[in-house]
Amino acid sequence: MIKAQTLNFLKELVDNNNREWFQANKERYDKARENLIELTTSLISKVHQIDPGVSADLDPKKSVMRIYRDIRFSNNKTPYKNNFGVSIPSHGLKLGGVEYYLQIQPGKSFIAGGYWMPEAEHLKAIRQEIDYNAADLKKIVDNPGFVKLFGEFRKQEQLKTVPRDYSADNENIELLKLKSFIVFHQLTDKEVQSATAAEDIAGLCSKIYPLNVFLKNAIG
After folding, report:
1. Counts for the chain of helices (H) and strands (E), in that order
2. So which domain of life are we looking at (predicted)?
């Protein structure tokens, strides 16, 4: 579970996003990160039982993403993220791709899954899989229980034009125009601080699992 101290650290970081404050509170950051690693260790174990593609050898320390922002090409020059991110890949040890993603942020925590902004080769393969087997994807994302947890799958960023090799009158054009193939479910501060947080989040991952299977099958 996430400790109140971890959320409090992130809350204060928002108003003190500078190196001086961060260095003065480095011990608090280290404890918050350790809290995330503890939760991630439990979560990896539980999600591995749901999705065998999640490696039992995944290092929880590497799954917890860096809090330091890359500001080289950003107008926002604050040096730190105001959240903790956890990537649990659905295949192998490389972070990103088809994954489960947990974000811890006061008032804005969530669990997500799928594939965010696939590289060109993978995007092409996923679109081809949708074109050939759209019924399989629609069975997953249009299930009432799935929609209740994650919302309307098609209402995420789409191309403004029809993707190459497909026609505007394709019955699955809304799915084919998607740029990402992700779902997410908001988590309250109370939920992430619950003693059963790892088990509850893993339960949500079990609902995401069929989508990840579809995407993994698409990209081989």
Report:
1. 9, 4
2. Bacteria
0.70 cut: is pTM over it? yes
CB atoms < 10 A from the CB of 62, how many? 12
Domain ranges of the chain: 4-219
Please identify, in words, the CATH class of the domain defined by 4-219. alpha beta
Amino acid at 195: A
Tell me the per-residue pLDDT of 91-143, one tens digit each, with 9 for 90 and over: 877 888 999 999 999 999 999 999 999 999 999 999 999 999 999 999 999 99
pLDDT exceeds 90 at position 28? yes
The phi and psi torsions of 54 (rounded to 5 degrees) equal: -75, 115
Q: Are 80 and 9 in contact (CB under 8 A)?
A: no
Residues 123 and 109: their CA atoms lie apart, in Å, by 27
Terminal Cα-to-Cα distance of the chain (whole angstroms):
34
